[in-house]
Structures are given as structure tokens and as C-alpha cells.
Amino acid sequence: MTPLKLRKVAIDTYRENVAYLHRQCPLYHSEGFQALNKIEVRDGPEKQPVVAVLNIVDDENCLAPDELGLSEQTFAQLDVPEGTAVFIDHAVPPDSLEAVHKKIGGEPLDRGEFLRICEDIVNNRYSKIEIAAFLVACAESGMERDEMLFLTEAMVETGDRLEWGESLVVDKHCIGGIPGNRTTMLIVPIVAAHGMLMPKTSSRAITSPAGTADTMEVLCKVNLEPGELRHIVQQQRGFIAWGGTARLSPVDDILISVERPLSLDSKGQMIASILSKKIAAGSTHLLIDIPVGPSAKVHTQAQALRLRKLFEYVGDRSGLELEVVITDGRQPIGNGVGPALEARDVLRVLQNDPRAPIDLKEKSLQLAGRILEFDPDVRGGQGYRLARDLLESGRAWQKMEDIIEAQGANETEAKPAALQYEVPAPADGVITAIDNLQIARIARLAGAPMDKAAGVDLHRKLHDRVRKGEPLYTLHAEFRADYQFARNAIEQNNGYTIG
Fold first, then answer.
1. Domain boundary among 361, 380, 407
2. Would residue 260 count as lying in a domain?
3. pTM recorded for the entire structure
4. What does the pLDDT profile of the chain (499 residues) look like in tens digits?
5. Is there a catalytic annotation at residue 265?
6. How far apart are CA 21 and CA 35, in angstroms?
7. CA torsion sign, 474 to 475 to 479 to 481?
8. Statement to judge: residues 193 and 315 lie in one domain
9. Is residue 103 included in any domain, yes or no?
10. Torsions phi, psi of 255, nearest 5?
């Protein structure tokens, strides 16, 4: 096979290996390579190949006919200098694709088949088209309870696991869909102040105006290496950091990168995604929050109860002590929607500020109380009172200050957004509904979470009485274009129903 000169192409292909070949390359014609073929790339006959999806280039300013370009991720995996002589060949399709075809046909898969699929995905042997086929097959054919368990186990097994050396490691997860629901940033300092171990790896926003990591980043560093996190946890009994630096359930990250553009959110995938991350993070006890409401992810109590049973089934068989709580998801929690506004709400609650949103405080105390009751020394029913005492005494705020300092406090505070607009009530009446999805959409159009100070600041909640012209919420934006996009969306639908 004719060698090609390796070239790094500065393109982030986000969790997909991509290679680039010029159309005039002799190998393109002689060996029958085509766009979207999968190829193997190696720098010697005995070397381990890297598998990539092939793209064809027509411009010699991008790539010469005697070169092979690799995207940033693929170049890092091959791990040889630019200019190295490399060889390419047609990739052999992974054997696990047979199991994907089986699932497309509606048949259930066993433990070994899920493991082989996950191994091939994490080793970049699947293109995003093939991953999409697997995800759609699981969503459309449905997954049996045991399949959810097998997928969870496979996702854990194909990544790293954190060990904390303690028998009680607690965590909490909300299935999402509720703007401003920043309870984690209150629960962690309350629980850590009690002395329980709560190492919280959190996500960044994908389709929401802020993830927990985005909001915590307003206050301190969240991109920390596992060694740093271990040191912090030994000192503080807790942290709130981005989970992307640890290789925990990496298959989940790849699947999510394909699910989101397709707007896929099947129960089986969601359960495996959440529980695999928690097990890999070393959690022994987990509280799951399922909000229910017309514009939440789960619309009815009956759906929530079915989902709770599935979580409990997989959790029990994975060795995870798990409790599921069903909460009110009819409206946003707190006042701020967007990183800086949500961080403000969290600090007000921790500091016992009279301006603190009551709903955020109460929900956080309820959830923190349930977690504290995982402690065998805390009697059932006493958790809420203990959580309230830890908050109102100032011990939770002191613990949060210590955690922020340990993670690396930001020297400058987030400035208020440059552009603001008060959204007026269109009529007198009582607020009968708030659309979570529309409020989240408006906050994202305003620039959140990329612009930390952008978002929405709510002034009215469900059942409040308003007069025409009184402000429902204030829009915050950093840039004129984002401000105008959000204003246009508000003109079409401001997210509030007044009856």
C-alpha cells in the first residue's frame, strides 16, 4: 500500500473519528475508497490502527493529493507527528453490527451483545450513522427491563470507575426539563456539612439554558482532574465539578452527542445513561428526582410511577441503593434561568437572604433531607429538620465557601447583562400556566449558557395575580443579536398563560 504524509486538520468533529483524502489521491481511484467509508489508519504494518470515517476533499489548499488529513480527535488517537508516513486500508465492519440489525428487527439483545456494541462504540469503530441506527432501534422497538440493565452494565464496564474507599457515597440526579432547578448546589454543601461524602460530577447544558457545571463555573473552577477532585473530597467531603475530565461511562457521552440532534430521549437510554454515570462515579446511594408537569419531560403521575419502577429495577440489580422522588414540575424552580442568575439564587438561599426564592429553598431542603436519611444515624423523618438546621445555622454556607475556595474561586463576579427588557403582562388576571420549554428557549436565545449573565429573571409564578403591564420577567442579554432573537420569541409566545 502506498504511504501518505500525515496532516492534522484543525476540525473538531466532536466524538467522531474523521479522515480526509484528496479526490486526486491515487489511492482514491485504485483502492475504491469512497466518502463515508470507514478506513483503518496506521503508521506501520504492526501498529494498532485507528478507525475513521472518510471524507473527500477537492481543494489542494486544504489537503495535497499525497496527504492524509485527520481531525483533531483522530490525530490525537494516532499519536504520531505530522509528516509521518501512514497507511490506510478498508476497515472491517465490527461484528457487533449484527446485534444492531437484530435490534432493528425488534428482537431483544443479551448482556454480551450490549457489551460488544459498547466496546466497539468506545473504540470508535461505529460511525455516527451506525450509532443513530442503534439508538433509533432501541427507541422504536423499546427495551425490556433486563436490556436496560445490560446496557447500564456495559456502559460502566467500558469506562473507568472512581473508588472513594467508603461504604456510604451519596449522589442526587434530576432527570431535567425544569429551568432554574439548581438544587444540587444547595444539597451538596448541606450534606457535606453533615459529614457525608458527596462527590458531585455534573454536566454542562446540552439543550437547557444552564447545567449545574455551568452555574457552578460562575463561582469557581469546575474543570478539575480526578487527582484534584480526590484531594478536595478528602478535605471538604464534597465538590461540584464538571464530569467530562473523568472517563466515566464514555459510551454515554458518545450516544448523547447523536441523541440530541435527533431529539431522541427514550426511557431505556435515559435510565442507562444516568445510572451508568452514577455507578462509575463510585456512588453507593442515589436519590432520583422526577419532576412531573405539562411541559416537563414526564407529563403524568402514571408515567412517573412507571419510570420509578424501572429505575428501581436496574438500580437494585446494579448494587445501588436508590430512592426516587416525584416532584412538582409545572413551572421553573427559583427566579433565575441562566448561569449567573441561578448562581445568585443559590447564594441567596445559602446566605439566608430574605430575597431567596422560597420554592428553590424548600425543594432543596426536602431532597437534602431524604439524602441525609441514607445515614443510618439519622432517623427516618428527621432529615428535613436536620437539613434546615444546617442551612439556617450558616454551616452549609461556610461549607460552600470552603468548596469554592478549594476548587479555585473566581476573582471577578459575573457582571449584569448589558441589555435588559421587562416582559409585561398582556392582561389582568391570574397566572394559570408557565411553559418550561418556552422559558428555557427564550433564555437560550438570549445567549445562555455561553454568556453567563444572559437569561431570564422571573418575577411572577403560578397562581400569582397580575395587572396588565406589570412585569412577568426580565430578559437579560449580552449581545444585540441575541437580545433581538429572544424578543422575537417573546412576541410570539411569552411562556405565560393568564386566566
1. 407
2. no
3. 0.90
4. 789 999 999 999 988 999 999 999 999 888 889 999 999 999 988 888 999 999 999 999 999 999 999 999 999 999 999 999 999 999 999 999 999 999 999 999 999 999 999 999 999 999 999 999 999 999 999 999 999 999 999 999 999 999 999 999 999 999 989 999 999 999 999 999 999 999 999 888 877 899 999 999 999 999 999 899 999 999 999 999 998 777 889 999 899 889 878 878 789 999 999 999 999 999 999 999 999 999 999 999 999 999 999 999 999 999 999 999 999 999 999 999 999 999 999 999 999 999 999 999 999 999 999 999 999 999 989 999 999 999 999 999 999 999 999 999 998 888 889 999 999 999 999 999 999 999 999 999 999 999 999 999 999 999 999 999 999 999 999 999 999 999 999 999 999 999 9
5. yes
6. 9
7. negative
8. yes
9. yes
10. -60, -40
In the sheet that holds 465-466, the strands lie side by side as 465-466, 429-434, 496-498
**CATH number for the domain that contains residue 101:** 1.20.970.10
- 393 and 458 part of one domain: no
How many domains does the chain divide into?
4
**Residue-level pLDDT at 342:** 98
Strand ranges across the sheet with 336-337: 336-337, 455-458, 471-477, 419-424
Beta-ladder partners of 328: 292
Cα 85 to Cα 42: distance, rounded to the nearest angstrom: 9
Q: What is the CATH number of the domain that holds 283?
A: 3.40.1030.10
Same-domain pairing of 372 and 426: no
Antiparallel, parallel or unpaired: β 238-242 and 496-498: unpaired
Q: Are 127 and 53 in contact (CB under 8 A)?
A: yes
Whether residue 73 is found in the same domain as residue 110: no
Q: Are residues 287 and 364 in the same domain?
A: yes
CATH of residue 476 = 3.90.1170.30
| Active-site hit among 66, 89, 146, 265 | 265
* HEC string for 247-277: CCCHHHHHHHHHHHHHCCCCHHHHHHHHHHH
Q: Which of 123, 157, 191 is the last residue of a domain?
A: 157
Environment class of residue 417 by beta-carbon count within 10 Å: exposed (0-12), middle (13-18) or buried (19+)? buried
Domain extent at residue 441 = 419-498
CA distance 138 to 152: 13
The verdict on residue 413 lying in a domain is no
Same domain, 232 and 335: yes
Same domain, 230 and 329: yes
Which residue's C-alpha cell is 446496557? 151
Asked if residue 351 is part of any domain, the answer here is yes
Strand, helix or coil for residue 333:
coil
CA dist., res. 361 & res. 374, Å (int): 21
CATH number at residue 42: 2.40.40.20
Contact 403, 447 (CB under 8 A): no
Instruction: Please answer whether residues 50 and 42 qualify as being in contact, where contact means their C-beta atoms are separated by less than 8 angstroms.
Output: yes
- Return d(Cα 20, Cα 389) in angstroms, integer: 61
Residues 84 and 104 in one domain: no
* Count of beta carbons in the 10 Å neighbourhood of residue 167: 8
